[in-house]
Amino acid sequence: MQDFISVGVFIDGGYYAKVNRALKKTENSIIRVRSLFDYISERLAGKENVNLSDCQITEAHYFRGRFRVKEAYDKHLLYNERKFEDTLIENDVVFHYKHLREVERNGQPEVIEKGIDVWFALEAYELATFRHFDYVVLITGDADHEMLVRKLKALKIKVVLLTWNLTDAEATSPLLKEEAGRHWELSELIKEDRDLRRRLLYKLRTEPQPELGETF
Fold this sequence. Notes:
This protein is of the alpha/beta class. It has a single domain, classed as Rossmann fold (3-Layer(aba) Sandwich), CATH 3.40.50.1010. It is about 45% helix and about 25% strand. The protein contains 9 helices and 10 strands. β7, α6 and β8 form a beta-alpha-beta unit. α6 runs parallel beside α7 and α8 packs across α9. The protein is globular, with a radius of gyration of 18 Å. The termini are far apart.
């Protein structure tokens, strides 16, 4: 038994935003970041048989592409981005952004996001190397992170893949699940535990409010 468990959490912002948009549409709810982090710590503390105070998320990082300020203003996204950033700051999450580009193809606007997945993987691997995490929790469903998981395991770091699949179209990559080994599928877990659902989801107000927008 270890005396202290250090946990690093790395959030794929594009994936997280998709989950929140789907939850907002189906349940008028979004994920409570603080509750999610507490759940991670509590579950790992129980698994490692240590006191909760000795199992801590020592670093959390969020990666996302976002529009430049004028584009965000024109799309009415600034309020939503700032509101979500407040949540990240309150929970000591370090955010990493790269600018998005919007191009027109076949008469339709298309958003181009370059380099986020690579940055996510490089940062997670580098920090895991220097910080010596006992666990790395990856919140993503992207098959591109399969090699990241393999490299983290080579460092003898235990990897947890945390997902929340709401449709078959957004199902987690089987290769990623297989490589990670430890997979927590929250959409299944909350079916078994209604208290967990209430704990993890924040019910949005029904009165008129600013749109959350596509980036929330």
